[in-house]
Amino acid sequence: MHKNDGAIVQEVLAGNKRAFGDLVDRHKDKAMTLAMRMLRNREDAEEAIQDAFVRAFNALTRFEWKSSFSTWFYRIVYNVCATQLSRRGEDLHIAIDTREDEEALALPSGELPPDIRYESIEFEQIVLKEIEKLPLPYSAVCTLFFVHDMSYDQIVEVTGMPLGTVKVRLFRGRIMLREGVVKQLGETKVGVA
Amino acid sequence: MNHLTTNEVFQLVDETLANGARTKILAHLEVCSQCRQEVEFQRKLLRAAKSAPLVRPSADLRARVLNAVTPLSKKSLLSRIVNNLGSILAMGIVLTIVWYAGSTTNPSAGSQQPSILSEAVKTYVDYYARARDFISKKQVQLVGEAPKNTSPQSDNVLYLTFVSIIILVAVDRFVVRRFMRIRV
User: Fold this and answer.
1) What chain A residue is nearest to B14 in terms of C-alpha separation?
2) Range(s) of the domain holding residue A60
3) Domain count along chain A
4) Predicted pLDDT at A1
5) Residue A110 domain-assigned?
6) B62 vs A24: CB contact, 8 Å cut-off?
7) Do residues A145 and A74 touch, judged by C-beta distance below 8 A?
8) CATH of the domain at A171
9) Residues of B in contact with A20 (CB under 8 A)
């Protein structure tokens, strides 16, 4: 029977530490994806998520269920990765202009190629490649939105950023994604019938 | 004709528009092919982004995490012996001394002259015999406070024992545990 996160957490707190392995299996792929998008290095990402899981285990007794387990856990992953980035000298939380009026008013420039084959593998590969190329301030927020399917409020909870900053970063990240994909479609002519 | 803003396109695609605004935008899409094309593009982009393959960690992640969070259950007998080597050595030395003291206090044990060590241990044993007598007579003596009629040698043995225990604990904590790198 498929147990939810809460049931597994209760089992672990009752003394069955090995049940924590089920939580690891359930969240490891999304955690690794987030870590890779932030750290851009496989070794560092592996180390970060292992660290995050151990920290989560040690903090389970303090988990108050104010949010879902996944939101709480990915906050730990995000913070561990952010710490690694700051050790490297890279700052996730650089100040950006939160005014979005200009972008909000204009339809994106860049004409779409005609007859795009959206169902082609090439289109999906181009999208994935452009997501991976997103600059650091935008990649984490976009990953949480696209991969983890989080709402704005959940992203705020995970990243600790103000709501306005999350909205702007997601907005700009999606615009960059669009521009990158359109450019690739135009250059490679793949994904176009 | 005014086209949709980027924000409106995103909100439509994310299905976060209020009913009134949505109706207005859908009406615009009926007559604007450029916006229709853009909305379709953003929908497909969003679908592709959400269905992009996840990055998988190495296969042994679960085992590594569980080893890190449940180390005690994994330790073998050998590991426990290694980690407590200092304490075991200390216990061994004490038991050796006690055995040695016991074997040399037997007056019929050969004609060999008692060594300085055996004399010291004998004095040590005598000291605690006297201490038991004192306690039985409801006289409590603090450890380290020599009885009135003991020999100077018993004081030396006491200090030697005390210092030896301190040295053995320090060796265990700061040398043996730090430099023994065996992980079992």
Assistant:
1) A151
2) 5-88
3) 2
4) 57
5) yes
6) yes
7) no
8) 1.10.10.10
9) 65-66, 69
